[in-house]
Every structure is written in C-alpha cells, then in structure tokens.
Amino acid sequence: MYYVVVIATxxxxxxxxVRALLGPSVYxxxxxxxxxxxxxxxxxxxxxxxxxRPDFLDLAxxxxxxxFVGVLAVLVFFRTRAQREPTETKGKD
Length: 93
Description:
Blueprint: H1 2-22, H2 26-51, H3 55-91
Helix pairs in contact: 1-2, 2-3
C-alpha cells in the first residue's frame, strides 16, 4: 500500500515539474516548485516509515523549512522586481 503512495506521489511530482517548466506565469511556476518540494517531504516521510528510520523525519522537516523560506525569498524577489519595473520604464522616455 505504501509503495502505491510513493508511486502516486512521484506521478504528481512529475506533473508539478511539467507545470513548473510550462507554467503560464511566474507565480504558477513558483507554486509548482513549492508543490514539488512538499511532495519531496512526503516521500521522505513515507520512506522513513517504510524503513523504520526516524532520522529521515528530521531531514524531511529541515527540507520543508528550506522549501518554505526559499519560496518566500523568490516571491519577495519577484514582487520587488515588479514594483521597480514601472519606474525604470518612465525614466527612459
């Protein structure tokens, strides 16, 4: 049963990867990368349960925090870039 969960999670990770590569907007791509990271945490947790390795849970939690902080950093970067663009184009006229 758990192997089916891992296979289904890998399938959704593949779909998220496709969305990250082909997404219509930057925010769709960031959301897809965030979902990919969340699914990676889920796979690590399932593997930790299957092999009886609770130390993998620490890795999963660390990866979840890195994923969260990374997505926030990327979104702040794109927000500040979007706020800066109109002022740069007005100065060139």
